[in-house]
Amino acid sequence: MQIRLGGVTAAKGFQAASAAAEIKYKGRDDMAMVYSKEPCVVAGTFTKNLYKAAPVVWCKQIVESGKPVHAIVANSGVANACTGGEGLEYCRGTAEKASELLGIPADSVLLGSTGVIGKQMPMDKLEKGVELLAASLGDTDELATAAARAIMTTDTKEKQIAVEIEIDGKPVTIGGMAKGSGMIHPDMCTMLAFITTDAVISQAVLQKALSDVVDNTYNMISVDRDTSTNDTCVVIANGLAGNAEIPAEGEDYETFKEALFEVNKYLAMAIAGDGEGCTCLFECRVEGADTLETAKTVAKSVVCSNLTKTAVAGHDANWGRILCAAGYSGAQFDPDKLSLSFESVAGQIQIAENGKGVEYSEEKATEILSQEYVCAVINLNMGDEISSAWGCDLTHAYIEINADYRS
Amino acid sequence: MQIRLGGVTAAKGFQAASAAAEIKYKGRDDMAMVYSKEPCVVAGTFTKNLYKAAPVVWCKQIVESGKPVHAIVANSGVANACTGGEGLEYCRGTAEKASELLGIPADSVLLGSTGVIGKQMPMDKLEKGVELLAASLGDTDELATAAARAIMTTDTKEKQIAVEIEIDGKPVTIGGMAKGSGMIHPDMCTMLAFITTDAVISQAVLQKALSDVVDNTYNMISVDRDTSTNDTCVVIANGLAGNAEIPAEGEDYETFKEALFEVNKYLAMAIAGDGEGCTCLFECRVEGADTLETAKTVAKSVVCSNLTKTAVAGHDANWGRILCAAGYSGAQFDPDKLSLSFESVAGQIQIAENGKGVEYSEEKATEILSQEYVCAVINLNMGDEISSAWGCDLTHAYIEINADYRS
User: Fold this and answer.
1) pLDDT in tens, B147-188
2) In chain B, what's the furthest Cα-to-Cα distance?
3) Would you call A84 and B229 a contact, using CB atoms and an 8 Å cutoff?
4) B310–A contact, CB cutoff 8 A
5) Coil, helix or strand for B160?
6) Which of A29, A220, A251, B332 has its CA 20 to 30 A from that of A339?
7) Cβ–Cβ under 8 Å, residues B350 and B358
8) Which residues neighbour B181 within 8 Å (Cβ) at sequence distance 6 or greater?
9) CB B350 within 8 A of CB B314
């Protein structure tokens, strides 16, 4: 597997565009489009929140219908969630505008929105935005990057990646972009992630691979334990790589799934590491668990703990809070067997063994905890299962961003 | 039911004391004692965290043995959690010291600790503290207040209350004190709550009443979703009121349980309203639920949401976050039937109806949200069940307190 430059336009036959529609933000792009002339099969995972944003309802209908997809239109600034019947009308209007301009069916247009919940959409601006997008499509890396930037809200960095694998002797590319910074605690999938691939693959196999991957990537990150109304991850595949169709199991399936995993893991970690107001990506890796479920439950509980997150913000090896978060996670393990260490580019340090503290240098621990990527390694010493979860520290900037987000 | 001045010494036959043992803090009292010459029956509820602090293990053994209790000794500064076998030795040593000075069995002494996890206890200071405590016991309100202050950590106010009821023609008093500010998300019971009563009641009936009450008080508050290693709530009853023994059901039981509920609800709300760094007590009252469980689940999800808590800190009626938190709570309801309003001493304002926003004055909403006690009222319009949960806003001060708590 090779990492390539670029994002959603890296795979053959995909174009992208971005535009400034002034839906909420001024002086920056706030709409993005992805387009494939070839029809694509689509797989998707969506939020489990009872309040599903209108574009989530729209996309679910398309994915469930099994119809081919040609385009994705996304906007930032307004989430089109809790907007009642009007919300789906905006979706229909946006898709019909794209349909008319690109000469494709309206129900081949996926939609994504992110921003304030409850505000109604300015339909005239949306339509104008679609016109600008359709007129500026292209397949360069620059356009992919601009599209990844257009869907940002409180994100500070665009998030995109592309990888190349070989299947059936043919190069196959998977590229994607994502956004997410606050209201990140995916329960099925995260905010917005759009993945493109030129692989030849059926919808059923693509959905199977995506569902597997999402459970171990987006569903293992948390910024603030708030599961969004808009969480959406879709993969569209246009088949231009010309490989023999990827089967539901076997070597080619595993190769594809691993590449899809790497793309989504990268994007998920990028979202966690760009959590609102954060200064570091905080990973908890749980080793030695008796079941995978135990490893996942403990890891997620630790990265979700406000007290752990504030300790990381203070570069403070306050390990009692980590054991406490493991202890209330709901997973069953022997608390007296647990050991804990911290790792980062500054080194590795043992902190606790057999459920209680050991002698260590606070100075060294603080140095390790002062890096941009910090990992708490828990060994439960009860088996061989391993899992990681990713989060971030909790800082003053999170409060600043969220105590006054709407204004 | 009448509210009385005072706390743990309000009921007949109870004495209290506080002392400065310099376990961690300097220049303030950090140990407290409650004592009854008459033997007491005891009921208790404790944390479900796998890491149970040594005093929790100690108290559970006593409560389960059914033996009579004479005293409670508590300290702040060090939690005696994750301290291994040494932890229980500190408990034994403390109880034996109290036993020797007060002439009571060591296993009639309940213990509570709160503070930093993982640090070993300074045993000499603890023993010195018990000596000071035993020498200064008395039954005044001032001593009760001093005891309530001695168990505070990041709390800014002491928390105590006493009520008087009549049972079998006799006045019965229930008084209590509690502490809690951070690591508050009780799963069975909160940090430390010590309740005294002179009621004549069996251990079984006392435990039944306490368990009922705890589910609707401490288990419905959250400051930061971190379930502590030390959560303890114990009630001790010395029988000096001389009433006919309270039966397991009927009018006298209900009168007693209601009074116990009011005492614990007051203490639970006082803990939530004194959450680390908070500026207001934030209640979510869910009405019109089809089941009590649904009402509780939705209410708790809303007061636990970091995004809702930061919006309250900013006095911002960002209602989409509240609907979002209700929607991901896991409870089932019809999202299109929900209505939402805000209430405080500044008035009441309707914000959403049928799952979407209505026209309202942002200025008026901000005024209502700028008070010390703010309530979000959700009506699910699906039944008659009602429940409240209590939390607080999330502010810069929470970060300040927790990014550097240990130093």
Assistant:
1) 999 999 888 889 999 999 999 999 999 999 998 876 666 553
2) 69
3) no
4) yes
5) strand
6) A220
7) yes
8) B152, B153, B154, B155, B156, B223, B271, B274, B275, B276
9) no
User: pLDDT of A19-67, one tens digit each?
Assistant: 999 999 999 999 999 999 999 999 998 888 888 899 999 999 999 999 9
Whole-angstrom CA distances from A258 to A205, A264, A285, B386 are 14, 10, 20, 48
CA separation for the pair A16, A5 (Å, rounded)? 15
E strands within B47-169? 69-78, 109-116, 159-167
Q: Quick check: A396 and B394 CB within 8 A?
A: no
CA quadruple A82, A88, A89, A90: dihedral sign: positive
Best of B191, B298, B321, B338 to substitute, by most chain A Cβ atoms within 10 angstroms, is B321
| Contact between residue B54 and residue B68 where contact means Cβ atoms under 8 Å apart | no
Please give the structure tokens belonging to residue B392: 């607080």
| Cβ–Cβ < 8 Å for A342, A365 | yes
Closest CB to A320: pick one of B48, B117, B327.
B117
Give the phi and the psi of residue B20 in degrees, each rounded to 5.
-100, 105
A188 has a chain B CB within 8 A of its CB: no
At B154, which amino acid appears? Answer: T
List chain A residues with CB under 8 Å of B307. 182-183, 224, 226, 402
CB within 8 Å: B403 and A310: yes
Reported confidence tier of residue B189, pLDDT bands at 50, 70, 90: very low
* pTM for this entry: 0.82
Of A147-156, A174-183, B153-162, the poorest mean pLDDT is in: A174-183
DSSP secondary structure string for all residues of B215-235? HTTGGGB-SSS---S--EEEE
B385 contacts B290 by C-beta, under 8 angstroms: yes
Strands A69-78, A109-116: pairing is: parallel
Beta partners for residue A161, in sequence order: A176
Residue A84 forms contact with B (CB below 8 Å): yes
**Amino acid in the structure at residue B256:** F
CB contact under 8 A, A402 and B182: no
CB atoms within 10 A of CB B364: 15
In the predicted structure, residue B77 carries a pLDDT above the cut 60: yes
Cα–Cα dist A9/A15, whole Å: 5
Are the beta carbons of B167 and B243 closer than 8 angstroms? yes
Contacts of B79 in chain A (CB under 8 A): 320
- The string of DSSP letters for B366-400 reads HHHTTSSEEEEEEE-SS-SEEEEEEEE---HHHHH
**Which of A84, A320, A332 has its CB closest to that of B82?**
A320
Pair of tokens at residue B280:
């207001």
Q: CB burial class (10 A; 0-12, 13-18, 19+) of residue B361?
A: exposed
Report yes or no for ipTM above 0.90.
Answer: no
CA distance B340 to chain A (A): 13
The CA distance from A270 to A373, in Å, is: 11
Strands A339-344 and A373-379, sheet pairing: antiparallel
**Separation CA A150–CA A144 (nearest Å):** 10
CB B190 within 8 A of CB B22: no
Q: Nearest Cα to A132, choosing from A17, A16, A28?
A: A17
The amino acid that residue A288 corresponds to is G
* Nearest chain B residue to A355, by CA: B82
Strands (E), B180-319: 192-197, 232-237, 281-289
A290 three-state secondary structure = coil
Helix (H, G, I), strand (E, B) or coil at B164: strand
> Given a cut of 90, is residue A227 above it in pLDDT?
no
Which of A228, A308, A310 has the most B C-beta neighbours within 10 Å, making it the best mutation to test the interface with B? Answer: A310
Q: Extract the tokens encoding B337.
A: 């039937």
